[in-house]
Amino acid sequence: MLKYGKFHIGLRAVKTALAVGLALLTAHLLGSSLPIFAVIGAISVMSRNLNDSLHECLIQLTGTVIGFVVATVFVRVLPDPSFFLWMGLGTLLVIALCLRLNVQFAVPLASIVFADICLYGGGNDQVWYGFHRFTDTVIGLLVALAVNMAIKPYNNQARIVRVLGEIRDAMPSYLDTRVLCGRYPDLAPLHRQLKQLAGEIEIYEGQFVRPGHAQDGQRAQASYLRGCEQLAVRMEQELSALCCMDVMGAPDSENLARLRALGLNIPVIQGKWYSEQDNLVLNYHLKNLLDAREYLSGLLENQTDEKGQKTA
Q1: Residue 214, pLDDT above cutoff 50
Q2: Longest CA span, the chain
Q3: Pairing relationship of beta strands 2-4 and 7-9 according to DSSP bridges
Q4: Stretch 267-284: mean pLDDT, rounded?
């Protein structure tokens, strides 16, 4: 990552720029007549991991082929395929074909390619235009895939661990607000963090094996991070349960000691009466939350990055 003060340029941006340059150079060396589509292909396929890149390749190839085939038929059969009625019917045919082939993801691009080819001149020029659009797009896709495979893939493990640590570290404040002060904390930031965490782990799971890492090891690491996520979700569930209590109850001696260990100031509860049921419910959810947090802390302490350094 390149940094200039507060301005950051990520590795993905650098790889995209490199792929565009190499795709354009390759297109020129091969005598391409439509190098712009090599550039578009390179930009569209550069994703954070190779699984996403391959999925985007599938979209580009499928959409381009379906749009090209339908447009070629219209150009050959109709005297003026750009007539508004034919354009509407052709778009409907493209959509129906995508649905029939169960490639709904290609509908937008296939429709665009169809319209693009039909609106360009007439006769054989349109067919050749569509053919070169496809071949030049393939050039961009292959170059971008090669760049994404050759240069260090996007690795967000440290970011996942950081978000997990932030969720863990926020719990004492939530407990102080709800359990000790009897107020209702704002859980919106916690929900946003959990959503971000789920998305980052999904990205991590889509990565191919990095050089020097065994596939089984990476799969095990993904499962490890999913386990950490489950502990974070468990803390949120127990905290939400505490927020649903009408009467908080009083923490028992064990939970009070654990709260003190987190650096919380324990107020003296005077003049309050809590039923045995309220106390049981409070301490049940509080113990589960503290257990999940303690377990998560232990797991995060064992996390290391690719250089063997601690990440939390």
Answers
A1: no
A2: 92
A3: antiparallel
A4: 78
pLDDT digits (tens, 9 = 90+) for 167-184: 999 999 999 999 888 889
Residues making up the chain, counted from first to last:
312
Rounded to 5°, the CA angle 300-195-293 comes to: 35
Report long-range pairs for 51-54 (Cβ below 8 Å, ≥24 apart): 51/206, 51/207, 51/208, 52/203, 52/206, 53/144, 53/145, 53/148, 54/145
**How far is the C-alpha of 177 from the C-alpha of 308, rounded, in Å?**
37
The residue among 139, 207, 194, 126 whose CA lies nearest residue 163 is 194
H or E segment to which residue 103 belongs: none
pLDDT of residue 131: 84
Going by C-beta distance under 8 Å and a sequence separation of 6 or more, which residues neighbour residue 70? 90, 93, 94, 97, 110, 114
Contact 132, 32 (CB under 8 A): yes
Q: 134: pLDDT confidence band, cut at 50, 70 and 90?
A: confident
Residue with tokens 């569509």: 130
C-alpha distances in angstroms, 156 versus 71, 182, 198, 200, 308? 42, 38, 12, 7, 15
Alpha-carbon gap, residue 213 to 216, rounded angstroms: 9
142: nearest Cα among 27, 32, 33, 48: 27
* Residue range 1-32, pLDDT digits in tens: 555 555 567 777 888 899 999 999 999 998 88
pTM above 0.85, yes or no: no
Quote the tokens at residue 271.
Answer: 């003049």
